Amino acid sequence: MTGDTDEAVQALVELRAGLERTITALGAASVRAEELIERRRNGASWYEIVSTEEPPLVIETITQVLDDLGELGSRFRREEALALQREDVSITKIGELFRVSRQRVSTLLQGTRGRAEAGA
Fold first, then answer.
1. What percent of the chain has pLDDT above 70?
2. How many CA atoms lie within 13 A of 116 on its CB side?
């Protein structure tokens, strides 16, 4: 399995797109944070700042990008572990490569089997 049919590659492509979205979103959040700092330094109360802040709030943006990256990163890790397992790499070796315990790798692999069986 190579190229476009490789689920790990697809997960990595989606992760890269998520990273690009994150860079854009965090850049906008940084600009927004600077605006809020300036408003506070210019004498606005925290109530004025918070009650008039345009959505998405800085903290909403941060929460969303962290959630998004967490999901995308987890999917990539699962798909990568499955790809290594298909290449007959042992669970112990995958754990060493990922710098996690073999038990964590086993959980990753079992989690994907559980979802596949539920969808079958």
1. 88
2. 9
For the record, the structure tokens of 27 come out as: 């850049």
- Token pair, residue 113, equals 């089997």
Which pLDDT score is estimated for 120? Answer: 45
Distances (CA, A) of 24 to 12, 17, 18, 51, 116: 18, 11, 10, 25, 34
pTM for the structure as a whole: 0.79
Structure-model confidence comparison of residues 1 and 20, the more confident one: 20
How far apart are the C-alpha atoms of 77 and 83, rounded to whole Å?
10
Domain borders along the chain are 3-119
A 10 A CB-CB count for 23 gives 11
